[in-house]
Amino acid sequence: MPLLEIKSAKITKKGQIAIPKHIRDIEGFKEGSKIAILAFDNRIELRPMNQVDERLFTALATEKILAKDWNSKEDEKAWKNL
User: Fold this and answer.
1) Which residues pair with 35 in a beta bridge?
2) For every one of its 82 residues, what pLDDT tens digit does the chain have, with 9 covering 90 and above?
3) C-alpha to C-alpha distance for 73 and 30, rounded to whole angstroms
4) Residue among 54, 55, 49 nearest 34 (CA)
5) Radius of gyration of the chain from Cα atoms?
6) In DSSP terms, which residues pair with 38 in a beta bridge?
7) Which are the contacts of 48, defined by CB distance < 8 A and separation ≥ 6?
């Protein structure tokens, strides 16, 4: 994907940034849009969730969501003596 534009932003005390409107328009980010934040050794990428490879969804899931499927009484019994 070619570079379309470079903009800068300030990080707030809470670690927040504002994505400039022009960039939001290019990428189709709207208020309330879910995005994925991908951290690499040399860069950070913000991607719309619909552009994230399905293989990465588990990494995005929270422990609470994963626990719904994995923390059952049957699982506790099966793992108890290991």
Assistant:
1) 48
2) 677 788 888 999 999 999 888 888 887 888 888 888 888 889 888 878 776 666 666 666 655 666 666 667 777 777 777 7
3) 41
4) 49
5) 18
6) 45
7) 27, 28, 29, 33, 34, 35, 36
